[in-house]
Structure formats: C-alpha cells, structure tokens
C-alpha cells in the first residue's frame, strides 16, 4: 500500500488488490530444496555446532528471500488506473492511467499458465510488461503505454527487460496475474472504476469481452488476446 500511495495523486485511491503469489506446490518445492541442501551439509559437518548449523541457516535465508520476491507480484486497481508489478523491497511497480490503455484491449484470462506459450515467448527472458509466472492461473491482458512511460522512476537494469512494441497498433502488450482470484473479479473492478472515472468506452469493452480460457496454441493468440498480432507456432 505504501508503494501504491506513491501514485495516489495520479491514479487515485486503491480500490482492490490482486496478489499473484506462488502456490503451495512451489513453496513445498523450495522447502524440500532447503531440507536436501541442509541435509547434505551434515554428511561432512563442521568441527563445531555453529559451523554445522550455519549452512542450514544461510540456505533458509536464501530460500526465504527468493520466496519474498516471488510473492511480490500485484495487480492494483485504483480509481483512475492500474498499478502492475512487484512490490518486493527495492522494486517499483508500474503506473498505468486508464487514458493510456487502448479501449477494447482488456481481456480477462483463465489458463494463464499457457499465456507465454500462446504468445510465442515460452522459454524466453522475462519482460517488464508480462508479469506471468509458472504458477499463474488467472490474469488480465491489455494494451497500453511502454514500460519506460509506466516506470515513473530511474531506469536501472530494468531497461534491459523492456520489450519492443508488439501490439498490432504499435503499442505495448501487458499481462498481470490475479492470483487465486478469478480474472472476472479484476475485469469487474476495472470496468467499475474506469466508468466512474469517465472512461465509459474502456469499461464497456472490458465488460463485453469478459474472460477467455487460453488454449496455449500460438495460432489462437490474435483471436483470444485483443491487440496481439498473429504468432507462428514454432
């Protein structure tokens, strides 16, 4: 909420927050990794008790830090726009006013774990505007300004993750997960706030399109994800 308040003058008050955190399977996987790594250190433990337990403590801190950053993804619906990205320490999410979102480009997404495959980016480096992880199941797709415009801060190394324009109108494609909450909840919140802020065309188009279940087939990208150009299946 502290990072959301940074954009209060521009985007207004926070209406609802969607958190895209790792699921139980991912957390258990990291815990088991810690158990294995810690167990291996006892095969040849240190000469003292402190040296014997120190590696386990270090591994726990590393695992905890990784989970902290993986759990930072948010889609925050504000009165006059969206905040997208990680709120983990040291990171800044992106601010996107409704006037910078292309009307008709907003679509709720189910089966979002197939998003990167469908848009032809599976296995490639993560991008600033596509906040999809392996545990993401629901989310919101839309076309808006560039990550550079939405960053509202210093470039730092994040500039290397900014994609080129990929929309059919030469703009940038965005995706943000909604966690365990259905994408329709986010679409309803966006439509309500956009309408109240005077962006009725944006609100009506978002409600009319609703939620799509992704097939994972690149041939369906242009049809299921508004604004996305045709993708060749590789």
Overview of this protein structure:
The protein is of the alpha+beta class. 36% of the residues lie in helices and 19% in strands. The strands form 2 sheets. The protein has a 5-stranded mixed sheet with strand order 6-8-7-5-9, with helices on one face. It has a 4-stranded antiparallel sheet with strand order 1-2-3-4. Strand 2 and strand 3 (81-86) form a beta hairpin. Helix 3 (24-41) packs antiparallel against helix 4 (49-70) and helix 7 (183-196) runs antiparallel to helix 8. The longest helix has 22 residues, at 49-70. It is globular. 34% of the residues are buried. The mean pLDDT is 87.
How is this fold's topology laid out?
Elements (H helix, E strand, L loop, with lengths): L1 H4 L2 H4 L2 E6 L4 H18 L7 H22 L2 E6 L2 E6 L7 E4 L9 E4 L4 H4 L11 E2 L6 E7 L2 H5 L20 E6 L5 H14 L3 H10 L1 E3 L7 H4 L10
Helix pairs in contact: 3-4, 7-8
The general outline is: globular
Between the first and last Cα atoms, what is the distance in angstroms? Answer: 41 Å
Radius of gyration: 20 Å
Strand line-up in the sheet with most strands = 6-8-7-5-9
- The whole-number mean of residue pLDDT values reads 87
What structural class results from the helix and strand content?
alpha+beta
């Amino acid at each position: 909420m502290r990072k959301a308040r940074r954009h209060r003058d521009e985007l207004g008050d926070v209406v609802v927050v969607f958190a895209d955190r790792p699921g139980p399977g991912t957390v258990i996987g990291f815990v088991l990794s810690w158990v294995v790594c810690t167990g291996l250190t006892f095969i040849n433990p240190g000469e003292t008790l402190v040296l014997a337990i120190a590696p386990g403590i270090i591994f726990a801190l590393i695992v905890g830090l990784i989970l902290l950053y993986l759990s930072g993804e948010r889609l925050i619906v504000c009165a006059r726009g969206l905040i997208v990205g990680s709120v983990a320490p040291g990171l800044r999410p992106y601010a996107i006013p409704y006037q910078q979102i292309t009307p008709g480009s907003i679509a709720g997404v189910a089966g979002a774990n197939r998003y990167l495959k469908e848009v032809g980016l599976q296995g490639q480096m993560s991008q600033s505007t596509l906040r999809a992880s392996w545990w993401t199941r629901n989310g919101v797709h839309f076309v808006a300004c560039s990550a550079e415009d939405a960053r509202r801060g210093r470039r730092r190394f994040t500039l290397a993750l900014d994609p080129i324009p990929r929309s059919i109108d030469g703009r940038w494609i965005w995706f943000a997960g909604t966690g365990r909450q259905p994408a329709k909840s986010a679409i309803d919140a966006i439509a309500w706030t956009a309408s109240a802020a005077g962006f009725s065309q944006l609100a009506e188009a978002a409600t009319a399109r609703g939620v799509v279940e992704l097939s994972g087939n690149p041939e369906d990208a242009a049809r299921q994800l508004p604004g996305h150009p045709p993708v060749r299946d590789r």
